[in-house]
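Reviewers of the previous submission asked for a worked example of the structure-prediction workflow described in the proposal, so we include one complete record here. The input consisted solely of the amino acid sequence. No template or homolog information was supplied to the procedure at any stage.
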Amino acid sequence: MSDRPLVLVSNDDGVEAPGLVALREALTALGDVVTVAPEREQSGRSHAISLHAPLRHRQLAPAVHAIDGTPADCVYVALYLEALLPRRPDLVVSGINHGPNLGSDVHYSGTVAAAREAALRGVPAMAMSTMNDDFDACARLAVALCRRMLVVHAPGHDVPLLNVNFPHGEPKGVRVTRLGKRLYAEGVEVRDDPRGRRYFWIGGPGGVRHERLDGSDTDAVDAGYVSVTPLSVRSTETDHFPLAAYVAGPEREPL
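From that input alone, the workflow returned the following structure tokens.
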């Protein structure tokens, strides 16, 4: 058995996406790399998991596997189907996504969901996305970040989950950030198909803009920096316990 770290790579752009290919090749300098990624693009699938549909597997090359499911499916299958991994991974890296995942994007992103699925299962994880078309340059920076990630996690501590975004052009540096505000045009466009049946397109016309927020990932990438944002898998909002107690009413059990 190899004593090198084992890194599991996945994404939501599909197993043959150039960002994933660049990432998995670069990470071989760091450890043993196994890819388990969606057969086809699964962008915007968030944390969907296929409980009521069979999943098919196809091996493209040694240590490169395609699953015809969601990003979360891929990480789940990799962790629990013994034939795919030689041992439990030391790190899961999802990406490099073609396009950013900033601010509220993390709730919709399949890239982030693949990393989150790993963290939920106790494996340190990173999601990586880029506004830069130079995937090889981003992958080289990714290796440096992953190398540090491999040495920081201590058993018994919360499992780390980091969301990384690379800016346009050559980065000026790296900033630790919080999630910003990324605002899309909203709306539902109604159309009729050639047979007269109605259908909808979700999302209004126009682009996306960022609200200025000091210390945010959106501000960082706008300024030309790589953003590194820690995310949490804990969903309980403790600040809202008083609200929950009021809503529960006097019939509730004592807290």
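The mean pLDDT is 91. We consider this example representative of the routine output the project will generate in years two and three.
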